[in-house]
Amino acid sequence: MILEHSERHLAYPVLHYFHSTEPKYSGPLTLTMLDEAISIQQTYKIDNSPHAINWKILRETMDSFTEVLDSLNSFSKDTEPPFISQDEISFLPVNNSHEKIKNSVASLAERRMKLHGMIMRDGWNWEDVN
Fold first, then answer.
1. Residue 80 φ then ψ, to 5°
2. What distance in Å separates the CA atoms of residue 106 and residue 104, rounded to the nearest whole number?
3. Which pTM value belongs to this model?
4. pLDDT digit string (tens) for 79-120?
């Protein structure tokens, strides 16, 4: 469904101007929430179960969506939103080293700025994601 949504945005650019006042119905907001959850998993490696491969599949799907954002070239934000700290998720098992966490957060900066720009353009802010 995410890939289909991405293709629709390419075919019908007017979709960028639709806005929902309900967070649960906002495509930009819910996709950003999903991407942030994937980023948290990628960074902290919380899920080490055999089903963790699903996170990789979701990331690849969201990569396609962010490529559509790149082609539209209108969603960039100048500042990176804050990333959830290890202290905030201390109740969860973190299975990654401090150095790998730092590198992962750095590698996600541009992607997260684009998504931040997209939700701001849609009338939301980063607190709505968290």
1. -80, 135
2. 5
3. 0.86
4. 889 999 999 998 888 989 999 999 999 999 999 998 998 898
